[in-house]
Amino acid sequence: MVVFLNGIGTYKGEFQGRPPTNKQVNIRSADLYRIENEKIVGHWDVVDQLNLLQQMGATFPQADQE
Fold first, then answer.
1. What is the pLDDT of residue 41?
2. What is the dotted CATH code of the domain comprising 2-55?
3. What is the per-residue pLDDT across 9-60, written as a single tens digit (0 to 9) for each?
4. Domain boundaries, the chain
5. What is the pLDDT at residue 54?
6. Which residues contact 47 (CB under 8 A, 6 or more apart)?
7. Confidence at residue 61, expressed as pLDDT on a 0 to 100 scale
């Protein structure tokens, strides 16, 4: 089973050393569940952290392309 989640909030507190911007941010994730005999026996979570950090103003150096 796959569950897609979309959360919206306001960046009001320090996060990983980054000061708050009071801007709206959106975070997306996908939760994957393995089910056997009607019970969840495995769970994996994939969060789009890069997109969230970019919304928070984080910048990343460009990789050299040859």
1. 97
2. 3.10.450.50
3. 999 998 878 888 899 999 999 999 999 999 999 999 999 988 888 888 877 7
4. 2-55
5. 87
6. 27, 28, 29
7. 74
Q: Which residues of 38-64 are buried (b: 16+ CB within 10 A; e: fewer)?
A: eeeeeeeeeeeeeebbeebeeeeeeee
Q: By CB neighbour count within 10 A (0-12 exposed, 13-18 middle, 19+ buried), where does 4 fall?
A: exposed
Q: For the beta carbon of residue 11, count every other beta carbon within 10 angstroms.
A: 18
- How many Å apart are CA 58 and CA 46, to the nearest integer? 20
Show the DSSP H helices in 1-66 as ranges. Answer: 49-55
Tell which residue, 50, 59, 55, has the closest CA to residue 10: 55
- Indicate the burial class of 15 (C-beta count within 10 angstroms; 0-12, 13-18, 19 or more): middle
